[in-house]
Design goal:
Length: 291
């Protein structure tokens, strides 16, 4: 993390960064999508239709913060692989053509001042070495609900750890990618620490790491002090202190679940990130702390 959200001032805002409507390949209208998320306690939402900027008007009508978003997709010749990239906080880009390389798509989005998120990398089949040369990729999706429902490829930890081991720095997203053809909404979200309730604050948080991602469990504290990792959570069964290569540890609750966790660094960790697992299997993920 370039910032630690657990020590920042502000309020926690719940939001989803990836979903679709009838403006592209979703089954619900923007109005219905906004009403669903507002009705389930979300504070912000980005509708990310394919290659087109869908208005945030319905999101704001429903009482949430609307973050202008888009999913850019095409073919990346360098990796010989399809790419899907979510852009958050667009200002001027309203339509994006298909077929750009991943780096060209990132450049387009960064030139517009928006955050870049590689969507469902495991589902697409990306390998860490293909992504290592990429510049200005702000985040990767650790979990994508729709891809998990489609073929069990919604989780991407090995790709993420492979890139972190190579020295890349980015944040970790969990999102629905709801298309409304299955039970793919409300499955994962971000808890963003923000001082302002606006789209700019959400976009900045995605870039700097002022959030954690979750399917339900909560993270209250995560820090390294005097070569020890200290964590506080809602009741969970285990915390995985994931790090470089074979480094890292798993701490398990002695009596079902617990809320306070502490382990000593053993030396050689390039980074530490958390995977918090509740008794029902739901997870929460921190952004990495770089050691």
């Amino acid at each position: 993390m370039s910032v630690n959200p657990f020590t920042l001032p502000g309020e926690w805002l719940k939001g989803n960064t990836h979903c679709h409507t009838t403006e592209s390949d979703g089954e619900k209208s923007p109005e219905a999508v906004a009403d669903w998320y507002a009705g389930h306690g979300y504070d912000f939402l980005s509708i990310t239709d394919h290659r087109i900027l869908t208005s945030t008007r319905e999101i704001e009508r429903a009482g949430m913060i609307g973050v202008p978003g888009m999913e850019l997709n095409g073919w990346d010749d360098a990796s010989d692989c399809e790419y899907h990239m979510v852009a958050l906080g667009l200002k001027n880009v309203e339509v994006a053509p298909p077929g750009r390389s991943l780096q060209e798509a990132i450049n387009l989005v960064k030139d517009d001042g928006a955050a870049t998120i590689l969507a469902h990398p495991y589902w697409l089949g990306y390998e860490p070495e293909w992504l290592a040369p990429i510049k200005e990729l702000d985040a990767l999706e650790m979990f994508n609900a729709t891809c998990q429902l489609l073929n069990g490829k919604g989780y991407s930890p090995q790709i993420i750890d492979g890139l972190l081991a190579q020295g890349m720095k980015f944040t970790l997203i969990a999102a629905d990618d709801a298309h409304w053809r299955s039970a793919d909404s409300g499955k994962a979200w971000l808890q963003v620490k923000a001082q302002e309730r606006d789209a700019a604050a959400i976009g900045e948080a995605v870039i700097t790491g002022a959030f954690y991602a979750t399917q339900g469990p909560e993270i209250y504290d995560f820090r390294i002090e005097e070569k020890r990792v200290v964590v506080k959570t809602s009741p969970v069964a285990e915390v995985r202190f994931t790090s470089w290569r074979k480094k890292g540890q798993v701490a398990r609750a002695e009596d079902g679940e617990q809320t306070e966790w502490e382990v000593a660094l053993r030396g050689g960790e390039k980074y530490v990130r958390l995977e918090c697992v509740a008794a029902d299997g739901s997870m929460a993920w921190s952004n990495p702390i770089y050691v």
